[in-house]
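stuck on whats below:

***
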Amino acid sequence: MVMMTGSLAVRGTVVWLTPQQGGRVSGPPEPDYDYDYTATAFLPPRTAEDGQVGIALRRFAPGAWRSAAEGILVPAQDHRAQQVVPGCIVVVTEGIRPVGLFTVDEVEILTADGTTIPEPRATTPAPEALSTPYRHSTAAARWADSKQPESPTDSPAVALT
């Protein structure tokens, strides 16, 4: 899980809405080799009015209604942090009109120079060292003391030949 407090690189699947669903009248965008498809987007439960981010998509099949894609999410200037996790849906909008759905499969944090940082993995902290070693209860300690021979001559010995 990554909190979007800066730009994120994402990989996943984009599904473009048909004109009957309220999507683009011209159909899926035709990305140019030199240019990415740029639009606005939001992550539910936010809406286009209160949670827009910028999105740039690339490497998706031109004219396909469903395709694998890569992209960059850029938060707004006065954004609030949002969780972006594999499996979440990003609603791609043109203005406030939804035109596509992007399902996130992978997410990475981008630095200011555009390089990616691997997602931090949660680790379980090591348990604190015990201040005193574990000891048996007092009763167990007394029982063990009563069963020990007092001297080596008190214990039966078996001669080995």
Remarks:
- The CA atoms of residues 110 and 116 lie 5 Å apart.
- The helical segments are 138-147.
- Residues 138-147 form the longest helix (10 residues).
- Strands lie at 2-4, 8-16, 37-42, 53-58, 66-75, 82-84, 89-94, 97-110, 116-117.
